[in-house]
Amino acid sequence: MQLKLDLQFFAGEKTEKATPKKRLDERKKGKVAKSQDINTAVLLLFCFIGLFVFGGYILKHMTGFYQKSFTEFIHWNVTEVSVQQVFTSATIEAAKMLAPIMLIAIVAGVASNLMQIGFLFTAEPLKFDLKKIDPIQGAKRIFSIRALVELLKSLFKIVFIGTITFTVIWIFKDDMLMTAFTNAENALGFFGRVTGIMGIAAIIALLFLSVFDYSYQRYDFEKNMKMSKQDIKDEYKNVEGDPLIKSKIKEKQRQMATRRMMSEVPNADVVITNPTHYAVAIKYDETKASAPYILAKGTDKTALKIKEIAKANHVITVENIPLARGLHSAAEIGDVIPEEFFKAVAEVLAYVYRLEKKV
Questions:
Q1: Please, which residues have CB within 8 angstroms of residue 266's CB and are 6 or more apart in sequence?
Q2: Which sequence ranges are marked TM in the entry (predicted)?
Q3: Are residues 202 and 148 both part of a single domain?
Q4: Which of 140, 144, 50 is nearest to 102 (CA)?
Q5: Separation of alpha carbons 210 and 202, rounded Å
Q6: The domain containing residue 151 runs over which residues?
Q7: pLDDT digit string (tens) for 38-61?
Q8: Whether residue 90 is found in the same domain as residue 136
Q9: 317 and 329 part of one domain
Q10: Domain finish residue from 121, 150, 175
């Protein structure tokens, strides 16, 4: 009894790698190994590049809008129509300024996901599931080991990125103090450069951390995807079918094929036997084939049945041990006999035709 329980325990232990079918099923549900840190790092990198490339374009539209505001809009009377026109104009200008960055952000988001998991579209995660609003299940997720790991990761990222940005500020602290003695344009230019340096440093740090995060996500995904030996057996049964049912289906198919084969025996010209273990029924019809072909064949009980049907339908039976064995192993039902048997079969058929003429 104890041994049986131990075997059941080990059979249920998840020690096996996930099968391709399970991976495909989980992928359809949207469950894949993915690091959000890679998405964040790539998104920030592309957006910073976009700001450097389109910075002049954005500045031009921004200053143009300010100029129009303080030279044209400022003289308008405050009415419902004028306020609406100002807000409409501001919205259009903001859309023009942000459009390149938004487009770059969309491309970056798609690219980072394609880089990790390839193309995947599924609505499965959007389906309503009562388990998602189950407070007990929610509490389990909140206080799980994975949630604790994610919390520690987030705290580490905050400290790591904060340390890097503070270091950049500390390096340029003297220059920052000196901006009090420069004009506004130079001060803004300096803070823009420092912000750019902090951004690039933070992006590099995030890319560095994302490598480790992706490795962890892959490890955790593979761990959760593991299957027990019983799971693999159950999956095989679902895919291939229950072995018992499958064997019964095959047996039924064999019986149907045998019945079809037996129904062709009365049409044979001759049945060649060995005489007890093999039987091969042959037909020669030049309108269907250029050479004699096999209508039926079998061994033991099937051979005996073929001979019985042949006898009942007055089909001549010829005993030829080597020819019967050779034809049985060399050709399948419906096949033309191989060339090396032409002469022997022709002699048998000639003999049969002579007997039929005598009759």
A1: 309, 310, 313, 315
A2: 38-59, 97-122, 154-172, 192-216
A3: yes
A4: 50
A5: 12
A6: 123-226
A7: 888 888 888 888 888 888 888 888
A8: no
A9: yes
A10: 121
My answer on whether 168 and 207 are in the same domain is yes
Query: What tens digit of pLDDT does each residue of 64-106 get?
Result: 888 888 888 888 888 888 889 889 988 998 888 888 889 998 9
Cβ density class 50-70: b for 16+ within 10 Å, e for less: bbeebeeebeebeeebeeeee
Provide the token pair at 87.
């807000």
User: Same domain, yes or no, for 130 and 101?
Assistant: no
CB of 236 closer than 8 Å to CB of 280:
no
Taking the CA of residue 342 as centre, how many other CA atoms within 13 Å lie in the half-sphere pointing to its CB? 5
* Number of Cβ atoms within 10 Å of the Cβ of 296: 27
Which regions of 131-247 does DSSP assign to beta strands (E)?
Answer: 227-228
CA torsion sign for 231, 233, 239, 245 is negative
Per-residue CA distances from 358 to 63, 178, 354, 355 (Å): 116, 128, 6, 5
* Torsional class of 132: left (φ above 0), alpha (ψ -120 to 50), beta (otherwise): alpha
Could you tell me which residues come within 8 angstroms of residue 235 by beta carbon, excluding any fewer than 6 positions away? 19, 21, 22, 227
Q: What is the dihedral of CA 221, 227, 232, 233, to 10 degrees?
A: -160
